[in-house]
Design a protein that fits this description.
Oligomer: single chain
Strand content: 25-35%
Distance between the termini: 138 Å
Number of strands: 9
Order of helices and strands: HHEEEEEEEEE
Largest sheet: 4 strands, mixed
Helix content: 10-25%
Number of helices: 2
Radius of gyration: 46 Å
Structural class: alpha+beta
Shape: elongated
Strand order of the largest sheet: 3-9-6-5
């Protein structure tokens, strides 16, 4: 007996929808890959787009905790001069005086100014050679005992006499709480000069 041969059974609705979804997924993925761009600079993005993408500023965050108070720095002694060099602290510096003399006994002077004044004037000592009880340093390494100003002479040319004086009071052999002056007398005509270092230590 002859029988009619049946063709393949058509897919049901669920299977058909799955096929369509698979196709769209592949097609969509291909289209996305074909339009993929690598952004390496914001100049590649339209200003209008950048503006549209910019979010609004959020509210301010809470105030942070207050940090711990630091350790107070050291201060100098206070007196009539205000802040002064602390006791036992040392300051150092250099000096140089020169002039040209037409005769002997002509004078040249220079000043020594303390970067930080002392609470009271120190006792000055001019060291032309060797050391003294309160000035144990040298022109290359000046030192001073507490309460003393030590002026160390380095080199001299055509100088007969050197001395220290208070530039405010003018008294020889004294200094002030702010500094001192160094004076030299010429030994003869021509150039005369002296140089050296100094150290002062607060009492």
């Amino acid at each position: 007996m002859w029988q009619r041969r049946r063709g393949p059974k058509p897919p049901n609705t669920t299977t058909l929808v799955a096929y369509i979804a698979l196709f769209l997924s592949i097609a969509g993925g291909t289209a996305f890959a074909a339009r993929h761009y690598l952004i390496t600079s914001k100049s590649q993005i339209s200003p209008k787009v950048r503006k549209a993408l910019r979010g609004t500023r959020g509210p301010a965050g809470p105030t942070g905790l207050t940090g711990a108070t630091g350790v107070p720095g050291a201060t100098g002694a206070t007196g009539a001069l205000g802040v002064a060099l602390p006791g036992g602290e040392t300051e150092t510096g250099v000096f140089f005086a020169e002039a040209t003399a037409t005769s002997s006994a002509e004078i040249a002077s220079t000043s020594i100014s303390f970067p930080v004044p002392l609470e009271k004037a120190p006792t000055p000592t001019l060291v032309t050679s060797g050391t003294t009880a309160n000035c144990q340093g040298s022109a290359t390494k000046p030192t001073a005992s507490a309460g003393y100003l030590c002026v160390y002479v380095g080199t001299t040319t055509n100088v007969a006499v050197s001395g220290i004086y208070d530039p405010y009071g003018g008294n020889a052999g004294t200094a002030s709480a702010y500094g001192a002056g160094v004076v030299i007398d010429s030994a003869g005509t021509g150039n005369f000069d002296t140089d050296g270092t100094w150290a002062v230590t607060a009492p």
